[in-house]
Amino acid sequence: MSDLFLEAEHAELYRKYRPRYPKEIFEIIDRKLTESTAKLPDGLKEKYKRNREGRWKRALDVGCGTGQATLMLLDSVQEIVGLDSSDSQIHQAKIECGDKDASRVTFLCEDALKISEAFEEDSIDLILVCQAIHWFDRANFFRECLKVLRPGGVLALVGYGLPFFNDEVIDKLNREYIDESLKDSPIRSTIDDKYAEVIKELRCVFPCVERDDSIVQNLDSTVDEYVGYLSTWSNYRTYKRTNPPYPDVLEVFRQKLQKCVPGDAILKRKFDFFIVFGIKSLK
C-alpha cells in the first residue's frame, strides 16, 4: 500500500471528502454470496448458512481506509474486520465507526499479503476491497484470499471511474485537470479500463469470475467539497511533496472552476461503479 496514506492529515481528508458507497452495491454483493452458497452441497450449505439474525459469519474489508465501506456490511455480516496498512487510516476508521455495533467491527493495521497468517483457512465468507486493488500485489493477494475464503466464499472488488459533470464546460475543465495531473500515474489505466486487466489476473487464481456494472451514483457538491475530494488523490499528494516551490495545481484548478460557477452553486457529478467477483470453488 502506498505510504501516501500514512499522513494523518490525508487520512482525515479522506474520511471527510471521499464519496460514500451506495447501499445498492452491498445488496448486489450479498445476493452474489447468497447465490454461491445456495449451490453448495447440502452439508456445506448448512455449515455456511446465515445466522438467526440473517447475517453471514465473517467478512474482511481489505484496504479499508477510513472505514466507510466497512460499516456498510453491518446489515449482512455478523463480524467484520477492516484491515489497512496505514495507522492514520485505521485511526480515522475508528472515529468513523464510533459506537456503531463496536463489538461486531474491528479495525487492524495489517498487510494485505498476510491475511492467511491472521485468519484460518476456510473461515471467511466475504472479502471486500473498495477502490484499493490497484495498490496491491494482486497475484499474491488473490492467492491469500483463496486460502481464507470458505467454499462458495466471495472476493468482491469494488471500483469507480473518474467523475463526470452534467455541465459541459465544467466537465471539460475537469477532464483537463485530471488528464494533466494523472498523466504519469499507472493507477489511471487500472481505473479507466474498469478492472479489465485485474479480471485477467483474477482468472488465473479463481475458478469463477463475474462482474456487475449496474450502479451509477449522482452527487451534488460545492466547489470546495469537490476540490476537497481531489485533494485526497494520491497523485496530488505526490505533486505537493515533489514540487513545493511551484504553484498549487489544485488551487489553480479551484480558481478556474470558481469562475465557471456562480456563487455557491451546486455541482452535479456522477460516478460509474463496477464490481468484480472472484468466487471460490464450491467443493
From TrEMBL:
Single Gene Ontology BP annotation: methylation
Family of this protein: Belongs to the methyltransferase superfamily.
Keywords of the record: Methyltransferase, Transferase
InterPro entries in the record: Diverse_substrate_MTase (IPR051052), Methyltransf_11 (IPR013216), SAM-dependent_MTases_sf (IPR029063)
Organism lineage: Eukaryota, Metazoa, Spiralia, Lophotrochozoa, Annelida
Highest taxon of source: Eukaryota
One matching Pfam family: Methyltransf_11
MF annotations from Gene Ontology: S-adenosylmethionine-dependent methyltransferase activity
Residue intervals of the Methyltransferase type domain: 60-156
Keyword Transferase: yes
Organism for this UniProt entry: Helobdella robusta (Californian leech)
Name the UniProt record assigns to this protein: Methyltransferase type 11 domain-containing protein
